[in-house]
Amino acid sequence: MNERSQSFNGSDKHVQVIARPRPLSDNEKSQNLTSYLNINETRREIIVNCKTSTTRFFNYDHVFGFQTRQQDVYKVVVAPIVDEVLKGYSSTIFAYGQTGSGKTHTMLGKFLMDKTSKDTVSVYMTMLESEAGIMPRAIHHIFQGLQRQYVDYTVKITYLELYNEELTDLLADVTNEQPEKIKIYEDKDKTNTIIGATEVICETPFDAFKVLIKGAQRRQTAETLMNASSSRSHSIFTMTVTMKDAQGDMRLGKLHLVDLAGSENISRSGATDKRAREAGTINQSLLTLGRVITALISNEKHVCYRDSKLTRILQDSLCGKTITSIIITLSPANETETLSTLEYGHRARSLKIRPEINQLSSKDVAREYVDEIRRLRQELDAKREVDGIPYSQYLALKNQMTLVQTLSDNNQAKLNNNEQQIEQYRTEIESLRRQLATQQQELRLEINERKEMLTLNRCRYDELIQITNKALTFREQVVNAMQQLCSTRSAGSTLIDQYIKDCQSIGDNLQINVQRINEDIRTILSTCSQSVGKVLTISTNIGQQIYILNEKIRAVLSLAFQNFHSIFEELNNIHNHFQTELDRELRLLIDMLVVEIKNDVDKNQEKLIQIQEDTLIKMKTCFQEMLASCDLSNQSLWLNLHKFLTQRFNQMSLMQISEKSTNDGNELLDLNNIRTACLNEHEQQVFTTQNKLEALITHLIESLTDINKTSNQKNTKLQNTTLIQHIHNICIQHGHEIRQLLETKLQCIFSQVRDEYEQQCDHLLRSIEHDINQMNLILQDMNNKFDSSSLITNDSISLLIKQSQRIDVMTKNLEYDWQMITQSVDKFECETIVPPPPIAIPKTDAAIKLELAIKEQQQQQQPRLMTIDNKENITDGNLLPAPIPISSRTATVNIVPCRLKNDTPFF
Ligand SMILES: Nc1ncnc2c1ncn2[C@@H]1O[C@H](COP(=O)(O)OP(=O)(O)OP(=O)(O)O)[C@@H](O)[C@H]1O
């Protein structure tokens, strides 16, 4: 291989040395060991506080802390080196340190040290974010880089173990009973080639990871006193990467990850016999490594690579063409070994390197293939030599193979025949399989059914067991109780006797109480029935009182009618009196006139006789007409009034009065209207009479004037004028008197009727209120009796509730009636027309007579005094209507109509 040299970053470099101390283990902490290392990461310095000597200071390319994470170590130390490998460099990373200092932890990591790891992919997925060491992270990194940077690549992995100067292929087939020994072959140009190592080509990182796990698990480990899983071997994990970029340039990168064995000396490790030899060998290899490093540092001409297989294998890495890094792992509690390691690392740091990129031209590739073929040939030759297989045997084997081939051909025909049979068998087997599947399906169904049945039975069985358990428990409880009862029976018999006696006395008391309560209930029921009777009596009384009220209203109206009748008679008398007076006055006037006229006639005899007769006839006629008209109009007016009142009186029914007192108001309004009409009519008649008189007098005056003209007697004229004035005054005075008299009488009648009605209503209301109060008292009494009794039977309660409901209904009815009466009274009061104040007029004879007549009427119609005796009966000496049957007065108060003698309907 012709390697074209390229300067690594353009300058010489030294071997990178990184220090990584581990924290104190639990074991060390339990021994109260303390760390004698002080780490200054910034200054990349480790200070060793030596117990025996002075404090030592060591500087390295990088110094990690005790708690540095795996990914940080990879990121800082390995990732840049792997990037260089992907560019075509070869690089080697050593882990150097005493046993138990953390070499394997740093190189492989926790997971891969765990030999029970099974699922490669899942471990791979978790390794990058957990305790995975440099190796798995480097695999991942290299494949990522290759996929990103190159169009074509191949990755080959070898994994070797050096144990007792014996190389072991960790990737070899373990089933091979005689595994091939690995040899280091040195070619002409002193290049060391390892022969016999399995080179696994990996296409994916998973393949590479599998390879890593396989190798790691095969590493031989031996236990020492210092570490429970101490490794006594060196392991060399190599990844060879051939890369081809888009331009067709090819490069070769190599990464050696070397986990060295422990660097401790034999005495401290405690190894004996075989182990001692192992330990010594280990130290010899490391010693050679150290010597090689020293020789390289001091540029010695002879470098003893060949003294150990380790240095032979790593010759390329150590001679300076490779990027080399050493991670020294430090145990914080072992001063001597750690100092040795620190010094080792410090020396190695002086080792100069001049890495070169391995770029391959097509010529180089061809050459490499030629070399490869040559190497394979040499390998074959070596095999022939080593295995010593003679060529003759080879030929014999070949003949045997030919024979086997012939036999095989002969058997082929038989095989073809058998194939048909096999096909038939196959068909049969297929149908049998189908049958089997059907039967299996049926069986499965049956099994499922059975299972369900079984489950059901199990449930029932469980239930039965539970019930049985409960029964057993109960039986035990019963037995216990029985036992307790037996034990306490004798002691409790006296108590039981006493108890029975007590019970008997309580029973007697109870019986007495029950009897007493029954009596109470009976008393309450009788009281209730009495109360109900009282309520019904009161209701009857209220009905009777309503009847009495109606009767009184009727009587008042009858009195009013009689009063009106007497007033009308009085008015008739007054009118007759007025008429008589008027007649008398007129006759006197006429007589006077006749006398005077006779005197005149005597003087003018013949001429005046005719005038006198004419005048007299005219006057007579006129007065007769006037009187007739007055009489007629008055008579017709009174007749109308009388007719109206009679009609109203006959039409008036006490039913109407009781239902609505509005009618009363209307009747009184009508009466008032008639009164006004009467007054107006009379006034009109008086006015008409006056007018007619005035016209007559005017006519007389004119006649007399004519007579005067004729007689020329001035004295007679004067007398006539005085006479006329006198007549006029009489007419005015009488008309006025009559009108005032009428007004006064009518006012008296109306006020009397109203007072009477109000008195009757008040009395009735008071009696109804009294009845309601009594009913309330009875109800209260009943409630109290109810409350005092706590043992009322259900039947009694329901009966009493019914009674109470009935009483409630009756009370509501009574309240409703009372409300209606109150409304009627209010309405009557509102609608009653208040008459004007009386006018003080000197009383005439007729007025005095009228007053006397009214007094007589009032005396005849004195209000009846009603009393209520102890049995709630009302007595007033008058005929009462038949009592209202109780059965018909349960919910509402029914009014039974009846008739008086004059057939006027009333209640
Ligand atoms: N940096 C670290 N952080 C935590 N634990 C660590 C660290 N390094 C090592 N250990 C623990 O210390 C113990 C010994 O580590 P490890 O087996 O890697 O030592 P070693 O140097 O490989 O020993 P040997 O040479 O005998 O193989 C292990 O249990 C490991 O988990």
UniProtKB/TrEMBL annotation:
Gene Ontology CC: one annotated term: spindle microtubule
Annotated Polar residues bias: 1-10
Name this protein carries in UniProt: Kinesin-like protein
Xref: PANTHER family: KINESIN FAMILY MEMBER 11, KINESIN-LIKE PROTEIN KIF11
GO terms, molecular function: ATP binding; microtubule binding; plus-end-directed microtubule motor activity
Protein's organism: Rotaria sordida
Family to which this protein belongs: Belongs to the TRAFAC class myosin-kinesin ATPase superfamily. Kinesin family. KIN-5/BimC subfamily.
Binding positions for ATP per the UniProt entry: G97, Q98, T99, G100, S101, G102, K103, T104
Keywords: ATP-binding, Coiled coil, Cytoplasm, Cytoskeleton, Microtubule, Motor protein, Nucleotide-binding
Residues forming coiled coils: 366-449
Gene Ontology biological process terms, A to Z: microtubule-based movement; mitotic spindle assembly; spindle elongation
